[in-house]
Design brief:
It catalyses: L-prolyl-[collagen] + 2-oxoglutarate + O2 = trans-4-hydroxy-L-prolyl-[collagen] + succinate + CO2. The chain has 3 helices and 16 strands. The chain is α+β, with helices and mostly antiparallel strands. The chain has one domain: q2cbj1_9rhob like domain (Jelly Rolls, Sandwich). Residues 39-63 have low confidence and may be disordered. The structure holds 2-oxoglutaric acid.
Length: 290
């Protein structure tokens, strides 16, 4: 008898407890969702721009991690711009901060030496009138800034840090240039370590008053929607041109998706007409480059 009387009370108490449990669960989930939304884990699209041109497809601020080493937000909008599909070329605007650009210039300045090209007959570096800049190779992972930049390049290209050559810093003074060339190798020596160059990330470390554009003379397509800026030089008119802007990173692919060289990736650095152009080049290989 005593047992029969206790059962409804037990049921009531269980009901009260489960109601309380679900109410708490609901409040907790609500608070969690609000917190995640607050820190940006839940993405709510705010850009209603229609994908009517190639440049509007990826226009979105890049979410960045700060792992130390200078990747501080500096308030400049970060967004990606598709330049061309033949060759595949993109600009990541404001990829580096001003502090990062200045750091790369400062540590390289005392070491700059005449730039070389690779001799296709021997695979050895040699001076050439086709490339008149000054340059310096940083060491891979040399400091926290460089480690951080190398990791971010790997993140954006999906090519592991291990496949990257050392960053090369370049300085072009008035009249200096890099004539049209491919970044992939045509000799059998250079590919022995790390295989072919698959892609290049070219980061502009300074603005240039006039000239110094990177130009792709064989790029195909309608570039009318690609953001053009004032002061384009005559050289820039010979193809798809990218005007150097401090912090912007140009990514282009020297290999097609099937792994064969893309002849349309031919490119060059136009002569600087006014100002000094500083840039950082990262060549990315097919396999580990140690
Ligand atoms: O400086 C430029 O704009 C082009 C540089 C370049 O072609 C290279 O480093 O391979």
């Amino acid at each position: 008898m005593a047992k029969q009387k206790q059962q409804p009370r037990l049921k009531k108490s269980m009901l009260r407890h489960s109601t309380l449990f679900f109410a708490l669960l609901f409040i907790f989930s609500l608070l969690l969702a609000l917190t995640l939304f607050g820190v940006g884990f839940i993405f709510v699209p705010t850009d209603s721009g229609e994908a009517t041109s190639i440049t509007s497809i990826v226009r979105k601020t890049v979410v960045r991690e700060n792992e130390g080493g200078g990747d501080e937000e500096d308030g400049r909008e970060r967004w990606t711009e598709v330049l061309s599909w033949e060759p595949r070329a993109f600009v990541y605007h404001n990829f580096l901060t001003k502090a990062e650009c200045e750091h790369l210039i400062d540590i390289s300045k005392p070491h700059m030496q005449k730039s070389f090209v690779v001799d296709p007959k021997t695979g050895l570096p040699r001076a050439s009138s086709a490339r008149t800049s000054y340059g310096w190779f940083l060491r891979k992972g040399q400091d926290a800034f460089i480690r951080n930049i190398e990791k971010r390049i790997a993140d954006l290209t999906f090519i592991p840090v291990e496949n990257g050559e050392s960053i090369q810093i370049l300085r072009y003074e008035t009249g200096q240039e890099y004539k049209f060339h491919h970044d992939y190798f045509s000799d059998k020596f250079s590919v022995q370590r790390g295989g072919q160059r698959v892609a290049t990330v070219l980061i502009y470390l300074s603005d240039v008053e006039e000239g110094g554009e990177t130009v792709f003379p064989r790029a195909k397509g309608d570039f009318s929607s690609v953001s053009r800026r004032n002061n384009s030089s005559v050289c820039a008119g010979t193809g798809l041109a990218v005007k150097p802007r401090m912090g912007d990173a140009l990514l282009f692919w020297s290999m097609k998706p099937d792994g064969t060289p893309d002849p349309n990736s031919l490119h060059g650095g136009c002569p600087v007409i006014n100002g000094t152009k500083w840039s950082a080049t990262k060549w990315l290989r097919m396999s580990e480059y140690i």
